């Protein structure tokens, strides 16, 4: 018999998938191993290598996010620990079980820059801020990821061998 914690974790996982797939064309897959990242999100169906990771956290009682939308520091530290060595953007999805509300924010944030020598920079966020994972918020996240990958690909300027 499943424990209540396991049931809530599974429910948070599915709520995160629903929130992420509100944007047309997004494909969500389970991460291949349990290294802190729960989901891999393909941001563009025409470019399957454009992925970002998502760590899912579920809250049953007590809040993981304060009134200003900042993730509680003990949770933020754990998520940053897992994200810091990733080579692609990483977000966090906080799912509140009593309300079925999901919140999204960047942990390892993509920052496309214009004219920079390091366009593929990722920023490990010191204070993780989340917002309600509406279709608009998720669409903005997908746009940011695609813009970041556009610059990564442009900077690589691959040549045929």
- The name of the CATH topology is Trna Endonuclease, Chain: A, domain 1
CATH architecture, please? 3-Layer(aba) Sandwich
Instruction: Give the overall form.
Output: globular
Distance between the termini: 56 Å
Largest sheet properties: 7 strands, mixed
Number of helices: 3
What is the typical, i.e. mean, pLDDT? 86
Total strand segments: 7
Helix content: 25-40%
Structural class: alpha+beta
Beta-strand residue percentage? 15-25%
Q: How many domains in all?
A: 1
Low-confidence stretches: none
CATH class: Alpha Beta
Structural overview:
The protein is α+β, with helices and mostly antiparallel strands. The protein has one domain (4-156): Trna Endonuclease, Chain: A, domain 1. It is built from three helices and seven strands. Strands 1, 2, 3, 4, 5, 6 and 7 form a seven-stranded mixed beta sheet that branches. Strand 2 (39-42) and strand 3 form a beta hairpin. The longest helix has 22 residues, at 135-156. It is globular, with a radius of gyration of 16 Å. The N and C termini lie far apart (56 Å).
């Amino acid at each position: 018999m499943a424990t209540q914690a396991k049931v809530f974790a599974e429910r948070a996982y599915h709520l995160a998938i629903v929130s992420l797939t509100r944007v047309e064309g997004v494909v969500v897959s389970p991460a291949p191993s349990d290294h802190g990242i729960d989901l891999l999100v393909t941001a563009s169906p025409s470019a399957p290598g454009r992925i970002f990771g998502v760590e899912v956290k579920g809250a049953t009682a007590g809040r993981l996010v304060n009134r200003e939308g900042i993730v509680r520091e003990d949770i933020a530290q754990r998520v940053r620990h897992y994200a810091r060595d990733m080579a692609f953007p990483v977000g966090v999805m906080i799912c509140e079980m009593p309300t079925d509300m999901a919140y999204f924010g960047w942990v390892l944030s993509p920052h496309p820059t214009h004219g920079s020598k390091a366009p593929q920079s990722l920023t490990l966020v010191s204070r993780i801020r989340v917002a309600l994972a509406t279709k608009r918020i998720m669409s903005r996240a997908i746009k940011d990821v695609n813009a970041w990958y556009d610059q990564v690909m442009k900077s690589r300027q691959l040549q045929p061998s």
